[in-house]
Amino acid sequence: MIKVTEKAKNRIVELKQVDSNDNKHLRVSVTGGGCSGLMYNLSFDKILETDEIFEDNQVKILVDKKSILYLLGTTLDFSDGLNGKGFQFVNPNASRTCGCGESFAV
Fold first, then answer.
1. E strand residue ranges, the chain
2. 13 near 5, Cβ under 8 Å?
3. Tens-place pLDDT, residues 48-74
4. Distances (CA, A) of 14 to 8, 42, 83, 91, 96
5. Which member of 2, 20, 54, 62 lies 3.0 to 4.6 Å from 27 by CB, making a disulfide possible if both were Cys?
């Protein structure tokens, strides 16, 4: 399960309205790359037959079967403070993260 904070939910709703993605849902995935080995990816997409589907805080989240192993228990947050703006992942499975927070290792 992936949790979504209120700030993240509000930003997701804004992005869906701006990009006319009302009929699509948030896709969270993990791919190889970044300075720590694995990277998070966010996009809007339609549901595929192979997706795991979660819903938290009125946000439907699509995750492929490979990525789910890395994302269980993760909280998706959004920061708009002085130290950086963007989505942040609080992932209990990550053994280390890079300084920018965009990549991680398990």
1. 3-4, 25-33, 37-45, 52-56, 59-63, 75-81, 84-90, 96-97, 103-105
2. no
3. 999 999 999 999 999 999 999 889 999
4. 10, 14, 21, 24, 31
5. 62
* Mean pLDDT, all residues of the chain: 86
Domain residue spans in the chain? 3-105
With contact defined as beta carbons under 8 Å apart, do 3 and 58 qualify?
Answer: no
pTM: 0.84
Give tens-digit pLDDT for 22-47.
779 999 999 887 766 788 899 999 99
**Class of the CATH-defined domain 3-105:** mainly beta
